[in-house]
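User: Please run a holo structure prediction.
Assistant: Happy to. Please share the sequence and the ligand.
User: Here you go; the ligand is iron/sulfur cluster.
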Amino acid sequence: MQLTNLLDFTLPAMTEWFAAQGEKAFRARQVFHWIHQRGVADFAAMTDLAKSLRAKLEETAVIEAPAILSEHRSQDGTVKWLFDVGVGNGIETVFIPEEERGTLCVSSQVGCALDCKFCSTGRQGFNRDLTVAEIIGQLWIANRRLRELQAEGTFSRLSAADPGPDFRPVTNVVMMGMGEPLNNFDNVVGAMSIMLDDHAYGLSRRRVTLSTSGVVPNIRKLRDVLPVALAVSLHAPDDELRSRIMPINQAYPIRELLAACREYLECSPRDFITFEYVMLDGVNDGEAHARGLVDLLSDTPCKVNLIPFNPFPNSGFVRSPRGVIERFSALLNASGIVTTTRKTRGEEIDAACGQLAGQIQDRTGRPTRLEGIRS
Ligand code: SAH
Ligand code: SF4
């Protein structure tokens, strides 16, 4: 018999599954607590359940997250995991500790179909959507593993809190790993609703950020069903350039995207949209681009996050020099757009979008296709 993976369930789904087995709703809640708040995978350890129920669960269910293929720890405390999601496929998850918080960068798909020219995940092509268990499993394992590292004393960058059984080092989640989360809408919303559930991780909507390349209809859908904090990958101030480096712009051009962003703000837990802007030398980093951006964003409450380009083999792009990024940022800030520059963390372990898994497999075998992109 196929065992049911309980990591796939939101609390309502778990309650329904328990009801179908003749079990009461509070039993589903208890098991949900054990799994997500305690990080327990073994039914035998769920001591407040009747022995008969534990035995029944052993026969019908499992709690199974993707297996860790490798773990890399960087000097600055960043940890990156590569997870096995079947035949030759890896996805990656990155933990970034800061003073007051610990942020986990979570993947939503194996590869990505959207083919942004500067992205190594895009370079790999699309393989498949991740299941709810595979998405929430990244958070589940990260908390368990970080707790172990903390207990071993290997990891001084984590909070000094006592690593008791309820200690969960991940305080923030960003859906910024591999894949386009809004193209795997139902599973991403399912997993995020577990992140927000007080019976599981209890993260507030402000602490969960979804990053999208701009799938406009699904930005509207997200606003209606689960409006978490929103980040939008903009990367260019005009349609001509944006379409060249992000083909999705041909389907959803900038005006439509910004209109959807403003509508999103009606329900957003934050009163601004974060626009991400990757700094590509000689492509989108000139003064005219910065001025274009200021004009474009004048009627959309926002912050801008500049991301120094993370190089990967044969990308055809180069990171903008530091001085150029500083000038770009200063111009935006002087024009009243709060602009920050992402710190490059964990560089020696390639903790950037799609890189480690990219070393395992290039599914497309495409040649470098970047002629004509640089302007
Ligand atoms: N698909 C979603 C989320 C995953 S990518 C999106 O595109 O928003 C997360 C962020 O990393 C995006 O802003 C993306 O544009 C950016 N990114 C992709 N490749 C990058 C690279 N090589 N260097 C720096 N940022 C990159
Ligand atoms: Fe996909 Fe985002 Fe990479 Fe674009 S940047 S290819 S949307 S993962």
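The two ends are 58 Å apart (CA to CA).
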